[in-house]
Amino acid sequence: MLIYTLCVFAVIGFSVFYLFFYRGWRRDRQLQEPFPESWRQLLESRVPLYSRLPIDLRNQLDQHVQLFLAEKSFYGCDGFEVDDTVRLTVAGHACLLIVARNFSDFDEVNSILVYPDTYRVREVESDGLVVSESNQIRAGEASSRGQVVLAWTECEEGAVDPKGHHNVILHEFAHQLDYLDGTADGAPPLSGEQAQQWQKTMTHAYEHLRHSLRHHQKPWLDPYGATEPAEFFAVLTEAFFQQPDHLKQEQPQVYKLLCDFYRFDPLTL
């Protein structure tokens, strides 16, 4: 009876440890490992903002990257070989989004699939009794199941052009932050007052972009952001990190909301 009771308590204790403490314990052990100098050199060459970060945020980014590479699985598609350059480029840009946030924001991300170039996806749509198929060419995508798909040529474009309009890594991982509340709707988890301000400001900016396009005016943002609110948030994130001065000039209230959400102001670097 005593042995049985001890076994029961041991099982309960192990279950509690695994459910509530194991992940933190494992991460603490991972961060005790030295950060390879070769990784730091790759981040300096592949993530333009890295060298401009203050030392505390740079150390935080190093830790996030270290955990990212330890926990997320990379897969090469169509014969593509994933090496340290690929892994550090993706991890470095993805972790910029959470450089001042908790790494737990990426807890649900489990795998990254990398194609050598843009790839085709067969899309099936049903409209009542009519079913149609189409082939779409994509540069990346994200899913609520924790999977991110990227085209390497597009990743490299963002890595070598820090002030460009597009960065597919930032875009797709912004979707993952959007999924934190269960759905990609352009509004990541926010507190009550912050959520109200977000809804008001972002809706106005979103409708402004759609209005500009309807009237054939040159928009201040990538037109793809007008597709739906989720894409608007992802495109805004690209602009926030890649062209913060332009975004602040055109939409100061939007810029402030993103500074509050990301807990980081790229214009102070």
Structural write-up:
The protein is an alpha/beta fold. It is built from eleven helices and six strands. The protein has two domains: 122 residues, Orthogonal Bundle (Cyclin A, domain 1); 85 residues, Collagenase (Catalytic Domain), CATH 3.40.390. The strands form two sheets. The chain has a four-stranded mixed beta sheet. A two-stranded antiparallel sheet has the order 3-4. Strand 3 and strand 4 form a beta hairpin.
Task: Please specify the SSE layout and strand pairing.
Layout: H1 2-20, H2 22-31, H3 37-46, H4 55-71, E1 73-76, H5 84-96, E2 111-115, E3 119-127, E4 130-138, E5 140-142, E6 147-151, H6 152-160, H7 168-178, H8 192-214, H9 229-242, H10 244-250, H11 252-262
Parallel strand pairs: 1-2, 2-6
Antiparallel strand pairs: 3-4, 5-6
Name some characteristics of this structure.
Collagenase (Catalytic Domain), 2 domains, 11 helices, two-stranded antiparallel sheet, alpha/beta, Cyclin A, domain 1, four-stranded mixed sheet, 269 residues, 6 strands, single chain
